[in-house]
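User: Response regulator. Structure?
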Amino acid sequence: MGDGVSIRLMLADDHRMLREGLRRSMTEHGFDVVGEASDGAEAVDMAGELRPDVILMDVTMPELDGVEATRLVKAANPAVRVIMLTMHADQEVLAAAIRSGASGYLVKDCSTEEIADAIRSAVSGETTLSPALAASMLDEVRRLDAPHEAEEDRIVTKREEEVLQLIADGCSTPEVAERLYISQKTVKNHLASIYQKLDARDRTQAVLQAVRMGIVSLD
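Assistant: Predicted structure:
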């Protein structure tokens, strides 16, 4: 699916003109736009019916915001990749998007080429962040660096490292369980152990800590 010809794309945005623009540009890039939703609730229902390969999901929508819609889509259809689109580079929303299982997070002023590349990367299992968001994440890593220097001798197990890398790649709990052939409960137990070892509150902070310590990468 490298050239985009067979990649089935769904759009979710409450602005009709933006959807029309995205549909035209993504069609020109060779993607098959199979559906358009105007709010989060419609996006969840449509994703269940159409089962697209990738969804371009606006963050701010009526009925259900993009982050919650992404969580519900991923819970029902783990194979669907979701790329979040937003007007602003917001660290908190980025963290929520990562927790929801998003495979990418782009600011809307990015080029259509960047969006097309992100779609192809998502299908390949990769995660894409807008440069502004990547810089924001690096700032967060630097902020976390000093308080945790004494904890770096805490090493995670090989299995925990595999769980961390899959989470860094944008996988949800069901996807991690499927890829590692373990139960979702076991994944959650691994996460609890990881949080303790890395002194992390949630998945996002655990990934940031693991990247800083060289345990996983965001490539």
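Confidence is low (pLDDT under 50) at residues 148-152. Strands lie at 8-12, 32-37, 54-58, 81-86, 104-107, 128-129.
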